[in-house]
Every structure is written in C-alpha cells, then in structure tokens.
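ingest -> validate -> predict -> emit
validate: passed (alphabet ok, no gaps, 321 aa)
predict: started
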Amino acid sequence: MLYKYCSVHNIPHKQIGKLIVATGASEIPKLDDLMNRGIQNGVDGLRKIEASEAKRMEPELQCVKALLSPASGIVDTHSLMLSLVGEAESHRTTFSYNTTVIGAHLEGNRIYVHVSETKHLENWNVRNLLHPELVLIPELVVNSTGLSATALANRFDGLHSGVVPSGYYARGCYFTLSNTRFRPFNHLIYPIPEDGGLGVHVTLDLDGQVRFGPDVEWIEGIDDISSFLNRFDYSVCVNRSKRFYPEIRKYYPNLKDGSLEPGYAGIRPKLSGPRQSPVDFLIQGEDAHGVPGLVNLFGIESPGLTSSLAIAEHIASRYLK
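emit:
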C-alpha cells in the first residue's frame, strides 16, 4: 500500500532491499524463525542466503547466513506526512493544533471528549484537577496518540482499567557515519533482534547518508502531562557511541574508530518492558472494551509508519459505519 501511495503521489522512495544477518551459528535458528514468520505474514520474496552470496551483494558485510527481503525500502517520511496532511485537508479534515485531548467520560453509549488548549497544560499544577475548555461528542474516536495512547486511555472515565495495557517507553539513539564519501552498504542491514528492539542496524536515506541505530534505553517516571506535551529527552549523548562500535563491528568489522557522530533520538511506545517477550500492535475496538465508537491504538512503534495506511484501512473498513 505504501509503495503504491508513494508512486501515485510522487513521494520520494526507493526499494533497496534488506539483509537480516546472523553473525554466529547460534543465531541461525532465530533467522529461520524470522523467515517462517515472514512467510506466514505474506511477505513476498523472502530468501535465506549463504554468507558468500551476502558478501557478493555487500563486500563490507560479515555474517554466516542472511535473510534477504527484496521488498524492503526507504521513504522520505517528511514528504509522506505532508502529503497525508494535504490529502486529509482536501477531504475536509480539520486539524486543531496547539490543542490537547486530556481525557473523556462515558454517558450511556456516547463518549464525551475533554479538550484543552495546550498552553494551559504547560503551567498546570499537578495537585489541581484538569478541567476541559471544550467537550466534543463524536460518533467515532480513534485514540492514535502514540506515546500518550495508554496514558490517555486511562483518563477515559468509564473505560474499564483492565482493558488498558501497561505502557513502557524506550529511547533509541542513532549515530551517523561521518565519512559520507564512502557508503559501505547499498542495502538495509539488520542484525538479529535484541531485547526491546531490532538491534543496531544500518539505515540509509535518499540523500545517501548512513545511520546506525537505534539502541534501547528504558525510560521511567513519565507522568501523563509530560507525555501529552512530549517532554521527552531527545538528546543524543556522544558517549553512547562506545556501545555502538562493538555492536556494529559484529557485521561491519571495518568500522573505523571516531567515524560515528551523534544523529538523533526517538522514543518508542511499547507494550512490553525489559526482558519481556515482544508484544505486537494492539488495535482495540468495542469487542475488547465494550465502548461503541472507540478505537484504541496501543504500542504502535516501528514499523508503525510503514503500516500506517494499512492500519487506517483496517479501522475504516471495520469501524466506520
């Protein structure tokens, strides 16, 4: 769906393929598991290849086996989002910026959504109750608030607390390769997934820049308002690169000291915490929580952007009357 949308709307993108690599014999069974899961999920073209073939494709790569995903690619995310905004507005969507949904309550079978100006939250005293400046009574509410989804759902008075999963936050940092004249890889390179993430992998952008990341740093102590206002720390500490070098050198042994520069960081909304089994996206409708006209999207981390059109299609076909 995403390739088709990008082609129709002239969004810069490129199908460059991905190699998921096993760097030791102990990782080969995990590679097999990924391949089997991909086939079950209808991923086209997956093929396990030997180290020699992977080396021919990527001379700088070190591995014992690899899984080739030729359908994987890259996209200009900013252009994609601008296009989606423009298309939504052309279909009479109104975006209310500098506005925050702070909760809701249920009366009968209707949802009353509580709304406040964002600037009033910035000076909010935690000891006082939050009072809405506007109450909306919509036919359908899609809680697609990313990092705030579980916190917001817990503020829906009348929604049974047992249906809202525990939320966790994981920061992931990226480092860029400083020598942009030499691009070591032409494919996306992914190691075997690690606890809490996909491992420090190679991402390429359409301008030819090479990035490595993300790592996993669990974040605690985030209150609701901080998540609503996106008061997360997105800085990248240069010292974290010390952890990146040994991870990257498992599959890219020729990485030179001093070649990594701080890039950027992102925060992932997760439904599983440290040392817990990973949890898939949770798209939760009336059949799960009993509230007509409410859809909660929990744990939509990466690959949420890639999946966004398919998620929207699923919601529209299932919940729009």
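The mean pLDDT is 94.
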